[in-house]
Amino acid sequence: MLLSYYHTYQEAGTDEAGRGCLAGPVTASAVILPPDFKHPLLNDSKQLSEAKRSLLRPIIEKEALSFSVCHILPEKIDEINILNASILAMHNSLKKLSFAPEFIIVDGNRFKPFSNIPHQCIVKGDSKYMSIAAASILAKTYRDEYMEKLHQDFPMYMWNKNKGYPTEEHRNAIKKHGISPQHRKSFRLLPEQLTLDF
Fold first, then answer.
1. Where do the domains of the chain lie?
2. From CA 101, how far away is CA 9, in angstroms rounded?
3. Which of 11, 91, 98, 148 gets the highest tally of CB atoms within 10 A of its CB?
4. Boundaries of each RNase H type-2 domain copy (predicted)?
């Protein structure tokens, strides 16, 4: 059950999707909801079916006071590591909001200060606070959509199904076909690998 707002004044919730993937971007969203926003289905995106996420996305986009989404691509992930890339994605999402929030709530336990705006990290915040839950849904749906488009160019990896996560089918495809430009070269792409030739 979501606990509504962390504070009563305007807050932005932010969350990311795709941090554990082997391919594709890490995607973050930031959302500022109106104080009276409620929806019975709103919850952590991981707890919702794809159909429910798809239903909620246009509602969040219509009702939010401001929202944004940002992708950080594999080349940048490899350059600065996935934690820094996740935080950068959240920062960039916050920058793209139409106005600055008074407070930021972040899913998880790692963040870097943004624009001198006070923030709070909240473990499992996407199942506790509405603005983080909304951000998790936007990040997840936009990233899934991105991976489905990439699938058209790289169908052998089945990204329309696994979305770049390290499933057995995805790892088997890497083993058979090698890596693509969309793979994160800094990640351990195959369990038994020692090195990859790039």
1. 11-177
2. 9
3. 11
4. 9-198
Find, among 35, 30, 149, the residue nearest to 90 by Cα. Answer: 30
Distances (CA, A) of 32 to 10, 66, 109, 169: 7, 5, 20, 38
Looking at beta carbons, which pairs linking 171-177 to residues 24 or more positions away fall under 8 Å? 171/22, 174/22
Q: What does the block give as tokens for 29?
A: 């969203």
Q: Partners of 114 in the beta sheet?
A: 117
* 78 known member of a binding site: no
CATH for 11-177, among 3.30.420.10, 3.40.50.280, 3.40.630.190, 3.30.1360.120? 3.30.420.10
pLDDT for 198 equals: 43
Q: pTM higher than 0.85, yes or no? A: yes
Q: Is 197 annotated as a binding residue?
A: no
Whether residue 107 is annotated as binding a ligand: the answer is yes
